[in-house]
Every structure is written in structure tokens, then in C-alpha cells.
Amino acid sequence: MSLRYLHTMVRVKDLEKSIAFYELLGLKETRRHDSEGGRFSLIFMAPPGQEECPIELTYNWDGDDALPTDGRHFGHLAYRVPNIYETCQHLMDNGVTINRPPRDGHMAFVRSPDNISIELLQEGDDLPAAEPWASMENTGHW
What we know:
Blueprint: E1 8-12, H1 15-24, E2 28-35, E3 40-46, E4 55-60, E5 76-81, H2 84-93, E6 98-100, E7 107-111, E8 117-122
Parallel strand pairs: 1-4, 5-8
Antiparallel strand pairs: 2-3, 3-4, 6-7, 7-8
């Protein structure tokens, strides 16, 4: 028996905010399915050239009162980035809170508008420690 990874699904409360957040990370919409009968939309997003492993944003047209919650049952999504400092600065410049700054030049955590924890990992060797990251405190939790 062989398995093939297909996607990760997360429920979102505000579709436009969520799409904008994942676009800030560099993901692009690869396909969409709108179900009139089921009153939901499925939006698949992936980094360019990596369409085989998308994230599926599930949006219920009539709302979802349980979102966003602070539940940690999901865990997190992880993406490798070419420069952790530049990525975090780009996100901060666009209003995203860096919950766990990349003090070690290797790893950071942010949260989506729907409270999904996103791990960002430095590609290749860790970057040398640099300010303001090296002395930046955690914000909230990740």
C-alpha cells in the first residue's frame, strides 16, 4: 500500500483576510471549488512550483462561530524560507505579529487571521544572530 500526501485543510472565518495572509507568505491560489448546495468554498493555495502540497482553506458561507479559537489541537503548518529575517520583516511591515521571533536565525512562528500557527524555517544554514530579532521577546503564544 502506498500513500501520497494531498493537502492540509484549515477552516477560515474571513476568506479574504486569510487569502491575503497566505499570499504574504508567497502562496498562490491554485484552484477553487464553490459549492452552492453545500454553501462552502474550498480554496487551494501553494508556493509556486509546489502545487502538489497545497493548503486547503475551507470557508463556510454562513459563518463558523467556533472560529477563530485558540485550540492547539491542529499543531502548525511549516514553510521553509530563503531568508528568515527578510520574511519576518515583510510580514511585520504588513501588520502580521511575529509571535516567536527568529532569534536563532533559524525559526519563527506567526499566526494566520484564523489563529493557525505557522512555523517559518530558514533554508540551509542558520543565519547569524541579528537585531532586532536577537533581543525580541515572544508575543502571545505560538
